[in-house]
Design goal:
heterodimer, A: 362 residues, mainly alpha, globular, B: alpha+beta, 7-stranded mixed sheet, 5-stranded mixed sheet, 16 helices, disordered N terminus
Chain lengths: 362, 571
């Protein structure tokens, strides 16, 4: 198993390299961070030229990537490099010219990702690690809470539906889950906000807060944060509960028909043991795959939910910085998720082996 | 399974506690001590006055609060809260002194007769929130930081025009330009959202000396020392920013104790929060949301900040559509587009049709009114110009060429709706329109990056700008600002080089006397209007909404929150 894990981690290195190149090139093609710089006015051309030079954005994308990866503190001034006139191939010619990488007339102080320097945000000039670090706890709080509720509720509903197939309750939960599953997140969020916040307040009923993590007058207390989490967590949970519970119901129904379950029943084992030990453990494999694929994205936050409820998490951070074409921050978030995907897949593989003794890794 | 449940429960509890404890160092309480001005005859048993907190629902989080680094309107509009300016602009957009003893003029010697040198005389009682006096050294330091190659500031304009910057004493700042500089009132450390404000030398100079740049100075993100009526107390990324009253404010402590900015990026959520009573102040609403806000008791105040939505016509001598070089065709577009109905239907009649790019300012010829909707006159003008529908396809043509124009703008919803309405109206008079829309970052790319608003590939270019408001100066009509391969930094979207207009713009840029300059602008606005070089769509004010708790609020176009220190809250 240890050799297997080491091999998987080594395989991840070239994979991460390829992912980083693709993402970096795509980010650079997305927009011009200097066009308006988040303002309503067009950046003056003279300022744009100056800023592009100061921020290193006038370098070809290959040089920008190299500096992002290994830094630029090793560069030096080599003087004026004539821009090649090769039409559409100009960027390629520039990338093939070693002087492109060596030359940096601005003070090269970046160490690069490989040495732990994720760069500076173009938006607020803060270190990327600091920018992401400020948001990650908020996202984990929201997403882990939601995930716990999703898995717990989905297990309850899925198992109940499987054990009571085609009963009135099963039909009801099936219909309800389809309604929630087909409802767009933004619609559910706004619907919930207007019902439980705006209209409840209008009707004189106890109401939930619309946005934020706490009321300024009350301060950031545990109760305030928990109270403000109700609507965003509910929004995040309902669609996923619906989806997960369908998977669990289906897997449980299939497993309950298996010979070994019938044998367990015939042996006179207690029903809870048959259901939760023999059936659920075997039905859990596809669920583990599903959860393992979802868990890394907890780090990325929920873009729509965080945006609507004003929750200061990673999803909003990602969106805000994508809109400003802030490559450093966006790359930081995406690479963090990429690493998490790889790690959680390895964890999923280990969990398979634990759930199903027939699975062995070499 | 049981162990897993316990683990999850632990994670949840720890997460909530961690999150809640993040700001434990500065807990907020509802009840607090009354302000110092509480009358002494209040019986000791009286409960302390509740803290006055105004909550802003802000759809864009600040990027930085250092005025020389940001380009965001959502930041510059809050300068009057935590920063300070030489002078502010009131609800009539008239300048009044703030850091200076008087507004410079030729009469008081603040401006030399040649209009090149401007002298600021600072008050001697102004100070930063930590008690350190504000002096000319802060102005000089701000100028030096803007011009330093080590600092990637958002813009150097107009400070890059300054020939010399001198501070003969602690209360005097002397700036000399090589030529008369007419927009000085709007742009030199003023309270306009288009200007930069001063930064504290005593805080930032040590950092600059140590690091060689202030790009990454902590003060940029957390200006704990300021010079406005409020001081930043806390800013949680993505969540909120809290400004508390500055007890050292030289004009006296503001009436509200705390201004709390809740960052809510979603427009619908902003509206819901205001309607639900979860916020006191909001801005940048869509016109379609205004009735709902008003029904909920939100008062809407318009802030005319110089923006007038309109269409620039590409009349570039080589790259412009030949049809648009005929004034009759340009006027036909004006007459053929029912903008009165557009404003009524699309903008709910909450604003008016714009006649010039300077509407709602004292700079337009008062006899100018928007072209009326007259499709018959539009057709007649087209016919006079030789454009008739000879092949019966509904679009006029001339010499075998159909009159089809490319209309490009950003992907902003109201602009796309306007395009659709305009296409329909103009089709009715025989003008074909091809609609194009772009992401704003793409649309506004410069000439060197082949941006559609700069490369003369479009015939009609729709946007609004207000570069030096409340000053009317702009470079986009100058011959010298037509972008070319040799001049890629040019900003003219029209490609127009008219010697008469160019001369008038050159002239106004040297006039420091208001009345004389106003007369020149009357000629400019009349010239552009008569020649239909710009098609006005609507006057585009910034909309601000205030809950019925807010008192004493006035709104200025140039300095929207100019009287924030006087705002109060009904309790």
């Amino acid at each position: 198993m240890t050799r297997y894990i080491i091999r998987r981690l080594l395989q991840a290195i070239p994979l991460l390299f390829i992912i980083s190149v693709v993402l970096f090139v795509m980010m650079n093609a997305m927009g011009d961070p200097l066009a308006t710089m988040g303002g309503r006015k067009v950046t003056k051309p003279a300022d744009r030229i100056r800023l592009a030079h100061q921020l290193g954005l006038d370098k070809p994308v290959c040089a920008q990537y190299i500096y992002w990866l290994i830094g630029n503190d090793w560069t030096k001034q080599v003087g004026e490099i004539p821009k090649p006139n090769a039409g559409v191939f100009t960027p390629i010619v520039q990338c093939l010219d070693p002087r492109t990488y060596i030359d940096a007339d601005a003070a090269g102080v970046r160490k690069g990702v490989l040495r732990g320097d994720w760069g500076i945000s173009l938006v607020n000039r803060q270190p990327v690690t600091k920018v992401i670090g400020a948001r990650l706890p908020n996202t984990l709080l929201l997403m882990v809470t939601a995930e716990v509720i999703i898995i717990s509720a989905a297990l309850l509903i899925g198992i109940y539906s499987a054990l009571h197939q085609y009963t009135a309750m099963d039909n009801f939960t099936t219909a309800t889950t389809f309604v929630f599953y087909s409802m767009p997140v933004f619609f559910f969020a706004l619907l919930a906000m207007y019902l439980f916040s705006v209209n409840f307040r209008k009707w004189g009923l106890p109401y939930l807060p619309t946005v934020g993590m706490f009321e300024p007058g009350a301060g950031q207390t545990v109760i305030q944060v928990a109270w403000h989490m109700v609507l965003p967590v509910a929004t995040l949970s309902f669609g996923f509960i619906a989806g997960y519970s369908r998977y669990i119901r289906s897997a449980m129904l299939e497993t309950l028909e298996q010979d070994y379950v019938r044998t367990a029943k015939a042996k006179g084992l207690p029903r809870p043991e048959v259901v939760y030990v023999h059936a659920l453990k075997n039905a859990a494999l596809p669920i583990v795959t599903l959860v393992a694929l979802d868990l890394p994205f907890l780090l990325g936050g929920a873009i729509v939910t965080e945006r609507i409820f004003g929750w200061p998490g990673m999803g909003r951070l990602f969106l805000d910085h994508v809109e400003r074409s802030d490559t450093a921050v966006v790359m930081g978030i995406l690479m963090m998720i990429a690493v998490a995907v790889i790690i959680f897949q390895i964890i999923a593989d280990i969990t398979y082996a634990w759930l199903d003794p027939r699975i062995r890794y070499k | 399974m049981q162990q897993k449940n316990i683990l999850f429960t632990c994670i949840m509890v720890v997460s909530i506690l961690l999150s809640a404890c993040a700001t434990a160092a500065s807990p907020t309480v509802v009840e607090t001590q009354a302000p110092a001005a509480v009358p002494t005859d209040i019986p000791p048993t009286t409960a302390p006055a509740a803290k006055k907190v105004a909550k802003f629902i802000w759809t864009q989080e600040f990027d930085t609060l250092n005025p020389i680094y940001t380009n965001m309107w959502f930041v510059s509009v809050v300068y009057p809260i935590y920063s300070c300016a030489t002078w502010m602009f009131d609800d009539q957009n008239n300048a009044y002194p703030s850091l200076v003893t008087e507004i410079p003029s030729t009469e008081n010697g603040g401006i030399t007769n040649d209009g090149r040198t401007i002298t600021l005389k600072l008050r001697d009682d102004i100070k930063w929130s930590d008690g350190v006096p504000i002096t000319s050294a802060d102005f000089k330091f701000t100028y030096d930081m803007i011009m330093s190659d080590a600092n990637a500031v958002s813009t150097r304009s107009p400070y890059d025009l300054i020939e010399s910057f001198e501070t003969p004493d602690a209360q005097t700042v002397v700036m000399t330009f090589p030529d008369p500089f007419s927009p000085w009132l709007a742009l030199l450390f003023s309270g306009s959202t288009n200007a930069m404000e001063i930064i504290p030398e005593h805080i930032l100079k040590p950092y600059f000396d140590a690091e060689g740049t202030i790009d990454t100075a902590p003060w940029n993100k957390f200006p704990s020392v300021g010079c406005g009526p409020y001081v930043l107390d806390e800013w949680q990324s993505g969540s909120f920013a809290r400004f508390v009253a500055n007890d050292n404010y030289w004009l006296g402590r503001p009436k509200i104790d705390e201004l709390f900015f809740q960052f809510v990026p979603d427009d619908a959520s902003q509206i819901a929060a205001l309607v639900a009573g979860d916020g006191d102040v909001g801005t940048f609403f869509a016109y379609s949301d205004v009735p709902q806000l008003q029904d909920a008791g939100i008062t809407i105040l318009n802030s005319f900040s110089g923006y007038n939505e309109g269409i620039y016509l590409n009349v570039h001598p080589d790259k412009g559509n030949p049809a648009l070089k005929d004034v009759k065709v340009r006027q036909a577009i004006d007459y053929g587009f029912n903008r009165q109905k557009l404003v009524q239907d699309l903008l709910l009649g909450l604003t008016d049709v714009a006649a010039t790019d300077w509407d709602k300012s004292p700079w337009i010829d008062p006899t100018i009114t928007p072209y009326p909707y007259d499709p018959e006159k539009a057709k007649a003008l087209l016919a006079e110009a030789g454009w008739t529908d000879t092949n019966g396809d509904g679009t006029v043509d001339k010499d075998g060429v159909e009159l089809v124009l490319k209309w490009g703008t950003t992907s902003r919803e109201v602009r796309q709706n306007t395009q659709a309405v305009g296409q329909q109206d103009l089709a009715a008079v025989g003008i074909g329109i091809e609609l194009l829309s772009y992401d704003a970052d793409t649309f506004f790319l410069g000439y060197q990056d082949n941006g559609p608003s700069a490369n003369f590939s479009l015939d009609l270019i729709e946007y609004s700008d207000s570069p030096d408001f409340p000053d009317p100066n702009t470079a986009i009509w100058l011959c010298s600002d037509i972008p070319t391969d040799d001049n890629p930094a040019g900003t003219s979207p029209t490609g127009l080089c008219d010697p008469t207009l160019d001369g008038l713009f050159q002239k106004q840029a040297t006039q420091v006397d208001f009345a004389e300059r106003q007369q020149t602008f009357y000629q400019i606005t009349r010239f552009i209007y008569d020649n239909a070089y710009w098609i006005g769509l609507w006057q585009d004010p910034d909309l601000f909404g205030f809950s019925d708790r807010m008192l004493n609020v006035k709104m200025s176009g140039a300095t929207p929150f100019f009287n924030v220190a006087e705002w109060d809250i009904k309790q």
